[in-house]
């Protein structure tokens, strides 16, 4: 049985974290590079430490898996804990460090390898997205709902070409089966903006667990559909990155799947 979680308290906690540790450092913080080449700032570290301390104090039996932990510690937590928090304390760090106002905090409660609760907070626009398994999704308390998309050739979406396989990326560029694409550089917000109907689809290669755990739940509970590129489920029970196909209109997802099946090559489920 899922533990009783005060969802409003968690939402307020994310807002407090942003107000104390993220927004005051926007435009002022310096960045360092992690061993994998990605960027980290003091805001990432302090945000994770604050949220871990607060969540541990209120829910001491639920461990936290955070992006800024070692891979070994992340793997151990996933193996040993049936219920755990999954946190990205500051997604879009490159944007944040460069003064680009597109970044967010993501927190999910995983149980049995599934996202049961999810929150994403956008500090710049002060928007809180949330969802509970089987209970729908909201933005600032207003329910989100799926809506019909136009035909694929008329759709606008987010495509992260950098992490897709080269053959698939080149074919997308050459054929461009959609009308137009964007890339905002903050996965946790890209999921939620799709759920809010701000565009029609989302393609992203090799996405990490903490980038999708809350956002995919929010989209699914809004009536959308998200899978790996080959149609398999996203699998929140392990760490390997997944390549994502997501739409707010499930019929558009089928149109994308048909197009992908005609592609000469696309990433397998392990990407």
Automatic annotation (TrEMBL):
Source superkingdom: Bacteria
Pfam families: Inositol_P
UniProt: Mg(2+) 1 binding residues: 67, 88, 91, 211
Gene Ontology molecular-function annotations: inositol monophosphate 1-phosphatase activity; metal ion binding
InterPro entries per the UniProt record, alphabetical: Inositol_monophosphatase-like (IPR000760), Inositol_monophosphatase_CS (IPR020550)
Presence of keyword Metal-binding: yes
Binding-site positions, Mg(2+) 2: 90
GO biological process, one term: inositol metabolic process
Cofactor requirements of the protein: Mg(2+)
Keyword line: Magnesium, Metal-binding
Family per similarity comment: Belongs to the inositol monophosphatase superfamily.
Protein name (database record): Inositol monophosphatase
